[in-house]
Design goal:
This protein is of the alpha+beta class. It has ten helices and 18 strands. Strand 10 and strand 11 form a beta hairpin. Helix 2 crosses helix 6 and helix 7 runs antiparallel to helix 8. The longest helix is centred in the middle third of the chain and has 41 residues.
Length: about 500
């Protein structure tokens, strides 16, 4: 025999998981007394909070290397992280031993469907039931602790007088609920013998369908548990598919941001290392490239787009590809940077977006180089006859995208017969030192590199040691991405 559906009530913040319950003093609170009286059963246990969590696994170190006789590269490895939203937590958290399932019944005629109040979960605990007589009430009652929705397909959808046969879309109300609650399990309630409509509801997105006049407490309990578990499985599959897609997108970004250097025929040795910041497992806006033009000049570049995310990474890819194309076309120095600024201005989504850049063009004999800085830290040069130091940076121009019509002077520098040139992004120097506010800075980085060189480190080993020590000094993963490029000339 059907049990009357209780009158409408507001959902306390405690039950919806939006506030903590205050301790009772001298007996149950007024709110609890009303809830017990309306439900007609023992005091309900508030549902566990479904906190949204997001765990990001740091990407594996990325590095590349090229020898003088045959270039070999090691690709970047990055692990995509999948987040868990509040809605995902609803589906993923139902297996907890302490979670009370909550059912939202959307039904305008309680006598039309024999809804049994005493539905229970697999542990024989009562399933909390809320009732909405229309979609407006349902939207108000649809809090994060609702696990399943039981929807009468006979309800009219918004803007419709009825859902009777002959309407253009008999499942309009279901489609509306699925848009309203995309992360919740949904059970469709239909008339006996209307299996075709029920099957169509499942095809549209419901987890199952039930007949009104064949429903009892045991069947409903089983259907709720099945629907919630099926939704959880669907959510897991969706997150897995999204993770695979994210990994594929990240692989494309890797190839765009961290390309294979074009150094065939050059005596210079190349090494690079990239590590994302702790808040992301995907690549950020750091990028670099190295090419050798037909005249024997080696051109190297490293840059950083402000901000973090796929848009910034995509913009970094565009700038890196544009730099390579312009360099191979013969542009250099101020002319090249001016053209890159035009590319940035046309491709960025926001006028506040800018990019820093450092370019070096090394003469065919390897003894001289031209340096251009666009708001970027100066490279470090190390030679056997003197300590490592920063290259001159007095003529540092503004970052790309800040000043229309800006100029970037090219500074001529002497490198010598044997040297190591290290280019880096600001993530390497902005890490903190210990617990205080002090940062490593360029001076601290220079001292660190000097010490590591004196220990006999070089090439990839030097870059690996530098990035690892900066992380250790910071007390953990760095906030910003780190990209480092090293060019060596050994007679």
């Amino acid at each position: 025999m059907p049990v009357p559906v209780p009158r409408q009530r507001a959902i306390p913040a405690v039950e919806s998981g939006q506030a903590q319950a205050a301790p009772a003093v001298g007996g149950p609170s007024k709110e609890e007394a009303v809830r017990n009286e309306e439900a007609g059963r023992d005091e309900a246990t508030p549902a566990d909070d479904n906190d949204a969590t997001r765990n990001a696994t740091p990407a594996e170190d990325a590095h590349q290397g090229a020898s003088t006789t045959g270039m070999s590269t090691t690709g970047v490895s990055a692990t995509g992280a999948t987040g868990v939203s509040c809605g995902d937590a609803v589906a993923a958290g139902v297996g907890s031993a302490h979670t009370t399932l909550t059912l939202l019944l959307i039904e305008d005629d309680p006598t039309a469907a024999p809804i049994v109040r005493d539905v229970r979960d697999s542990d024989d605990r009562p399933i909390r039931v809320r009732t909405a007589r229309n979609l407006t009430e349902a939207e108000r009652l649809l809090t994060d602790d609702v696990h399943c929705i039981l929807l009468d397909l006979a309800l009219p959808a918004p803007g419709r007088a009825s859902a009777a046969a002959g309407d253009d879309d008999e499942l309009a109300v279901l489609r509306h609920v699925l848009r309203l609650a995309p992360r919740h399990a949904v059970l469709a309630l239909t008339a006996s013998g209307d299996a075709e409509r029920g099957a169509e509801a499942v095809r549209v997105g419901a987890q199952d369908y039930l007949f009104k006049d064949e429903l009892d407490g045991r069947l409903l309990s089983r259907a709720i548990r099945y629907a919630v578990e099926r939704k959880r499985s669907d959510t897991a599959e969706r997150r897995l598919a999204e993770g695979k897609l994210r990994a594929q997108e990240n692989a494309r970004l890797e190839r765009g941001l961290l390309p294979t250097p074009l150094l065939e025929g050059s005596p210079l040795r190349f090494a690079a290392r990239y590590r994302p910041g702790r808040s992301r497992a995907l690549l950020g806006g750091d990028f670099y490239d190295t090419v050798r033009t037909p005249d024997g000049t080696v051109h190297a570049m490293i840059g950083d787009v402000c901000g973090h995310g796929p848009d910034e990474a995509a913009l970094g890819v565009e700038l890196r590809i544009a730099w390579r194309a312009l360099t191979l076309a013969g542009l250099c120095g101020d002319q090249l940077l001016n053209t890159l600024q035009q590319v940035l201005e046309h491709e960025r989504d926001d006028d506040e977006i800018f990019a820093t850049l450092c370019t070096v063009d090394i003469a065919p004999d390897g003894r001289r180089a031209g340096l251009c800085l666009a708001g970027h830290p100066a490279p470090l040069i190390a030679r056997p006859d003197r300590p490592a130091r920063l290259l001159p940076h007095d003529n540092n121009g503004p970052a790309l995208g800040l000043l229309p019509g800006a100029r970037w002077p090219r500074t001529q520098v002497e490198l010598g017969a044997e040297w190591s040139l290290m280019m880096y992004t600001d993530g390497l120097i902005e890490g903190r030192i210990g617990e205080g506010r002090e940062r490593l800075g360029q001076d601290g980085m220079v001292e660190m590199i000097r010490r590591q060189l004196s220990e006999g480190l070089s090439g990839e080993g030097l870059l690996r040691a530098a990035v690892n020590e900066v992380r250790e000094l910071n007390g953990g993963e760095l906030t910003d991405d780190v990209a480092v490029v090293l060019l060596d000339r050994v007679p």
